[in-house]
Design goal:
Elements lengths: L7 H13 L4 E3 L2 E3 L5 H26 L1
Antiparallel strand pairs: 1-2
Length: about 60
């Protein structure tokens, strides 16, 4: 977790979501990427878009 500076629960939740979306393959000793990495890029783009939306809403809330 120190590599990504994230909490264990956050990383585990992300892994579960990625696995359920068939973006990654979970194995006993870790995870691996399927041959199609474009799906991972799309996931990361959506996550970035959501972060932008969250920041806009937060600023609106703070501004009142």
């Amino acid at each position: 977790m120190s590599l990504t500076e994230s909490y264990r629960d956050t990383a585990e939740g992300d892994i579960i979501k990625l696995s359920q979306s068939n973006v990654i393959d979970c194995m006993y000793d870790g995870i691996s990427f399927p041959n199609n990495l474009n799906r991972l890029d799309e996931y990361l783009d959506r996550e970035e878009d959501l972060d932008i939306e969250k920041n806009i809403l937060l600023k609106q809330l703070i501004a009142g």
